[in-house]
UniProtKB/TrEMBL annotation:
One of its GO terms (molecular function) is serine-type endopeptidase activity. Keywords: Disulfide bond, Secreted, Signal. GO terms for biological process: proteolysis. It comes from Drosophila pseudoobscura pseudoobscura. Its main location: secreted. This is Phenoloxidase-activating factor 2. The keyword Signal applies. SMART domains: Tryp_SPc. The lineage of its organism: Eukaryota, Metazoa, Ecdysozoa, Arthropoda, Hexapoda. The keyword Transport does not apply.
């Protein structure tokens, strides 16, 4: 899960409304419901506010005879819902480690049995990640692991789930030299179960001013000189850095004064000793929703940086809000093909 921090060639290398009820509004006289609850074909459409498995339906066309509470709790049905206290009191975590099950969307990726990167669950059968991680890798050799915490142990209270990848979709404009448009989707051979420790993250639908501190959770190195990746899921707290500041700070590095920050980037970090690092590539940068500190939306994908944890040197992340329409389009296409 290489973050490609050595920049020889610069990659060098849901939302958003709560669901206390079984349905949520997505517009005037409309609500998010599963597709089978919307009676009129013309009354339904995909909306960024709804989860990937839902449509936005005219209230007058919602089938109220369907039991929407069976088989899942309200918490399990929410995208971006964390478990702040964790799900296993016996799984001790240090300050820089996530608790077991704290961030249910975190994905570990394996190629021929070797861990190589991170991703985020965006639907029960799709993982969002960085395209640069897929160089020289066949989809037939990639395994997605959800619900894990300690990669060196199988003793967690709730077992993880693994799935083979059936199809890979890279963004068509990905530029390996700059890291622009650096994202890809992995579609799974069969859906993952929706449980307390496995559920999707919400996707940012619009750029916004974020004053709260955000997070990256991954199994990469703790520090740049380290030899080994982390076995237990790390929890890295980071500030978002505005574009002008980020570009100016990166120009003070070996990138030089002519460096231009690509439009597809957001920046975070720049604090000494706090950073995503090699092995965290593809993992989500996620921030709390404005109205709920226990729910998060993904605003970035770990892309590249210069070493790790250097003061005043932020790292770059693929801007999820900019690519949210592309992600939704690919999810819809995959859903239509499955039907």
């Amino acid at each position: 899960m290489s973050k490609q921090w050595a920049l020889g060639a610069i990659l060098l290398s849901c939302a958003l409304l709560g669901r206390g009820d079984p349905v949520t509004p997505c517009g005037d006289q409309q609500m998010c419901v599963s597709k089978d609850r919307c009676l009129a074909q013309m009354g339904q459409y995909r909306s960024a506010v709804c989860q990937a498995s839902e449509v936005c339906c005219d209230i007058s066309q919602v089938d109220e005879s369907v039991d929407v509470t069976e088989g899942t709790s309200d918490a399990e049905d929410l995208c971006g819902m964390s478990n702040p206290s964790g799900l296993d009191a016996n799984a001790n975590a240090s300050e820089d480690q996530a608790k077991f099950g704290e961030f249910p969307w975190t994905i570990a990726l394996f190629h021929k049995g070797q861990y190589f990167g991170g991703g985020s669950l965006v639907s029960q059968n799709a993982v969002l990640m960085a395209a640069h991680l897929l160089a020289d890798k066949s989809e037939a050799d990639i395994v997605v692991r959800a619900g894990d915490w300690d990669l060196s142990s199988t003793e967690e209270s709730t077992p993880h789930e693994e799935r083979q990848v059936s199809r890979v979709v890279k963004h068509e404009n990905f530029d390996v030299k700059t890291g622009s448009n650096n994202l890809a989707l992995l579609f799974l051979e069969s859906p993952l179960p929706r449980t307390a420790h496995i559920r999707p993250i919400c996707l940012a639908t619009a750029e916004r001013s974020i004053e709260a501190r955000c997070f990256v959770a991954g199994w990469g190195k703790k520090a740049y000189p380290d030899v080994d990746y982390s076995s237990i899921l790390k929890k890295i707290e980071l500030p978002i850095v505005d574009r002008d500041t980020c570009q100016n700070q990166l120009r003070q590095t070996r990138l030089g004064r002519s460096f231009v920050l690509a439009p597809s980037f957001v920046c975070a970090g720049g604090e000494k000793g706090k950073d995503a690092c090699q092995g965290d590539g593809g993992s989500a940068l996620f921030c709390p929703l404005a109205d709920n500190t226990s729910r998060y939306e993904q605003v970035g994908i770990v892309n590249w940086g210069i070493e790790c944890g250097t003061e005043n040197v932020p790292a770059t992340y693929t801007n999820v809000a900019q690519f949210q329409p592309w992600i939704e389009q690919q999810l819809k296409l995959a859903s239509n093909e499955a039907e």
